[in-house]
């Protein structure tokens, strides 16, 4: 059976681990503390419970047997025999740099590394390893279980056989892929973060309230969500990290992070995950 290591048990790591386990894959979910892992166990269990409320017509596998395919831990040696790694750790170069240095030594030679990042260069992370041909970007969308497509990013050295293996992997978990080349932020976040950032400037300048900014995107442009709701969903801390990376990477002032976003993050307003961002979540 294919075994997958999932690194980082935050918003994305939990979503990915759950999606893989629901597709019948064996998962090792790693994070830095038992406390975080306990929270992630509860988050996944709750999501699986909700799933049965929304899918009354389908025959669903019992949540317990899905959970049995997820093994939680903090020790990287658990990744010794995995076939793929999906890394979803904090959007910070130093954090990811340390992880790739470790897993390149621990994981078997043929293991493929999938990087789930918002903006960090796939080529630059791949260069930390001795297997750059087997490193690829897989930008899953949030919430993972609901979104049908994944933005797949080809690093400079990513091989065709790696792309084929990832295509097959994504088919197995019922995801369509859209392949793009590697530049920080790829297609999705290079564009979407400009919207989110400028929307924050609009609120900072008191041009409009958050609900009115988002209403214009939903009701006038027909978007499913406005930029500020999207920022809250992603996590404003992750948005700020991503904007800083885009700014640094392109040396272009259009990516300068809005001071209001920084202030909100300093105040602990991370969006949905902390209960408050541009909106309050009960
Ligand atoms: P998050 O803050 O919710 O979770 C990150 C997790 O990584 C935390 O639980 C943290 O403890 C863990 N972590 C940190 N250092 C670690 C280490 N050395 N080993 C193992 N775990 C470690 O962040 P998130 O929103 O889940 O984002 C994770 C990644 O996915 C980021 O790179 C982000 O840019 C990307 N991403 C996020 C979204 C989104 O909507 N939030 C969407 C697509 C991609």
TrEMBL record:
Coiled coil: none
Source species, domain of life: Bacteria
Residues of the 3-hydroxyacyl-CoA dehydrogenase NAD binding domain: 3-182
Assigned keywords, A-Z: Oxidoreductase
Transmembrane segments: none
Domain 3-hydroxyacyl-CoA dehydrogenase C-terminal, first and last residues per copy: 185-281
Protein family: Belongs to the 3-hydroxyacyl-CoA dehydrogenase family.
UniProt name for this protein: 3-hydroxybutyryl-CoA dehydrogenase
UniProt organism field: Paenibacillus cucumis (ex Kampfer et al. 2016)
């Amino acid at each position: 059976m294919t075994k997958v290591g999932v690194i980082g048990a935050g918003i994305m790591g939990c979503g990915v681990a759950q999606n893989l386990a629901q597709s019948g894959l064996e998962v090792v979910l790693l994070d830095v503390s038992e406390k975080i892992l306990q929270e992630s166990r509860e988050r996944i269990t709750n999501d699986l419970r909700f799933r049965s409320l929304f899918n009354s017509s389908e025959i669903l596998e019992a949540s317990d047997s899905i959970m049995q395919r997820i093994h939680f831990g903090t020790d990287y040696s658990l990744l010794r025999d995995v076939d793929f790694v999906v890394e979803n750790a904090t959007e910070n170069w130093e954090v990811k740099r340390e992880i790739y240095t470790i897993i390149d030594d621990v994981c078997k030679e043929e293991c493929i590394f999938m990087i789930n990042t918002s903006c960090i260069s796939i080529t630059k992370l791949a260069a930390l390893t001795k297997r750059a041909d087997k490193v690829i970007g897989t930008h899953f969308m949030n919430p993972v279980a609901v979104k049908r497509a994944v933005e797949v990013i080809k690093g400079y050295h990513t091989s065709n056989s790696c792309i084929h293996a990832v295509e097959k992997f994504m088919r197995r978990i019922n995801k369509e892929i859209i392949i793009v080349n590697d530049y920080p932020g790829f297609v999705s976040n290079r564009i979407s973060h400009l919207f989110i950032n400028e929307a924050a400037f609009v609120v900072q300048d008191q041009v409009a309230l958050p609900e009115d900014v988002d209403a214009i995107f939903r009701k006038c442009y027909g978007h499913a969500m406005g930029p500020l709701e999207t920022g809250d969903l992603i996590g404003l801390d992750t948005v700020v990290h991503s904007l800083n990376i885009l700014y640094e990477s392109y040396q272009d002032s259009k990516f300068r992070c809005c001071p209001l976003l920084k202030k909100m993050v300093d105040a602990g307003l991370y969006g949905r995950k902390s209960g408050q961002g541009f909106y309050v979540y009960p």
